[in-house]
Amino acid sequence: LLTQGNEVAVFGDETTPEVEYVLFTWRNDLYVTLGNDQCDIAVEAHGWSERSKNLCQKTVARQAWPVVDVLPHWDVLELTLTCNGQLLQEDMLSALIEPRTLLEKVSAADGLKNGGRMVFSGTIATKGQLPKPPYNVAMLIRDPVRDREIAHAFRVTALTALHAQPLGSPD
């Protein structure tokens, strides 16, 4: 479900983007980039959080920074997400779990070390209502100390249901 593309198709019109930092290892070095953990809010409302996350593609940016380059000023890195030009999420990484703690929690849960996976951080607070798809999302992680940023934009479109079926009913 991972993509770096410019378009994400979702089933139905009750999904929401969530900007997060994303950690991954490449050639034994830890990197940070930017990601969207799109989720189905209709499914999540039924208490199926994990299922709601697995129904939508995850978008990640095409650029990354070595974590060692930003760790000394990690807390001042800024995440933002806009949808159709409206600011929906904005906060510093100090609002989220720090990388070492996040990786320790994930390793304790799955027994694996850092290689071969991407870890999404969890998201920051949302401000305002999200429109129904289609909509255009722009997300950004900004490093004010080094005066640089990683950005990624994509369009979210909703697939049309072939027939209406209540959530939770058998196929």
Provide structural commentary.
With 171 residues, the protein is mainly beta. Helices cover 15% and strands 41% of the residues. It contains four helices and 13 strands. The radius of gyration is 17 Å and the shape is globular. It starts with a strand and ends in a 12-residue tail after the last strand. The model has no long low-confidence stretch (mean pLDDT 83).
Secondary structure elements and their pairing?
Blueprint: E1 2-3, E2 7-11, E3 15-16, E4 19-26, E5 29-37, E6 39-40, H1 41-44, H2 49-53, E7 58-60, E8 65-66, H3 67-70, E9 78-83, E10 86-92, H4 99-110, E11 118-120, E12 135-143, E13 148-159
Parallel strand pairs: 1-7, 2-13
Antiparallel strand pairs: 3-6, 4-5, 4-11, 5-7, 5-8, 9-10, 9-12, 12-13
Which keywords apply here?
171 residues, mainly beta, six-stranded mixed beta sheet, five-stranded mixed beta sheet, 4 helices, 13 strands
The largest β sheet comes out as: 6 strands, mixed
Portion in beta strands: 35-45%
Give the uncertain stretches in residue-range form.
none
Element-by-element helix/strand order: EEEEEEHHEEHEEHEEE
Tell me the helix content. Answer: 10-25%
Short description:
The chain has 171 residues and is mostly beta strands. 15% of the residues lie in helices and 41% in strands.
